[in-house]
Amino acid sequence: MLKILFFMGGLFFLCFYKNLYWLVHNMYFFLVLFFMFISMNLFYFNNLTYMFGVDFISFCLILLSIWICGLMMMASMLIYEMNLNLNYFMINILILLIMLICSFSVMNLFMFYLFFESSLIPLLLLILGWGYQPERVQAGIYLLFYTLFVSLPLLLGIFYILFELNSLEIFMLEQLNFKYNLMYLILMMAFLVKLPMVFVHLWLPKAHVEAPISGSMILAAIMLKLGAYGIMRVLVLLSSLNMKYGGLVLVISLLGGIYVSLLCFLQIDLKSLIAYSSVVHMSIVLGGLITMSFWGYGGVLVLLIGHGLCSSGLFCLVNFNYERLMSRSLLINKGILSIMPGLSLWWFLLLISNMAAPPSLNLLGEIMLINSLMMWSKLNMSLLALISFFSAGYCLYLFTYSQHGKFSMLINNFFFCNSREYLLMFLHWFPLNILILKVDFLMMLF
Fold first, then answer.
1. Is the pTM of this model over 0.85?
2. Domain chopping of the chain, boundaries
């Protein structure tokens, strides 16, 4: 892991030169290949040092983080062309990526907490520094206070684990099994807010709407996954308490998923609609985590990767419209099919992936999660059926309202879509649909 971190440290010096923007961007994709080749054997924790180690779940999420950071730089062409503090922007993305890689690969629970909370700072700087509207300050405060309000109890819980176990190594946690009811709330709440679970999700739509395209991409694709990853790690401690309270969390999560999917039909803002659809996906992910089964954890990992690529691509498509129309309103973004059929194809491909149509990874993930939730209780069947139905409904609602109808007279320079934008969409869609051919990699989970 130190090889990776030293490599990324070397990129700092390249970030001070505007002309080397595309070199830094290409280095991220080179880093994906480099990381894959040094992590060939994933049946156990490997690349071990005193503090770092990678298992299969960490490996997949680190790869996703590096991939999305490369795509973020490709999507942020406006910042490059107008030189909106470009050097600081590149350094900010690099620091954020280092924080994420350390979060996913660190083996000490306190260090995980440290990097988990530190990753909030570069994201906050992205929203405040490169956001569009003045309301971005309010969105930043929402993001900061929702996250930090529940992080202090988590820190106290980590110190209590140290007092009980005399160790904070993640692979040692299974030797301890808490019976105190309060520990379930203390350890889970910080990750439920980050996931986010319904009723503590209000910061997410605000942050998405005010963030620049790079902020929306990393927030949807990676930052939500930190919550799921944290729950995976701490549920080892809470298995007996999970048998007692897990059913309640699961029912609240699935009912909340139905409520938020109905809320999607009321959205006018394109970014807000896609942000709420992320909450619906994460409600199913939380259900799979609560089951603590192989089907559940496997489905969670597949859906996290699939949703990361799919939601990031959808935010890019919204940004393409916003750069031309300067509006994200569904009332203005109409009739795109008649003037930009090429872009409409990408809308269609990513929205059917979002509703879990074959051959996307979302389909495999949802099938596995539905299996695990029905093994937990047959009563979940009706809730899952409603979530799947409404998810397909709001995806079709978004497609028909944005692509059909009479296009607005405000459209002036809407007719051109360059090869960079098509390549950006392809780099989201191709791994999302091709990885389903290699599903046997899930056998490496256990």
1. yes
2. 2-445
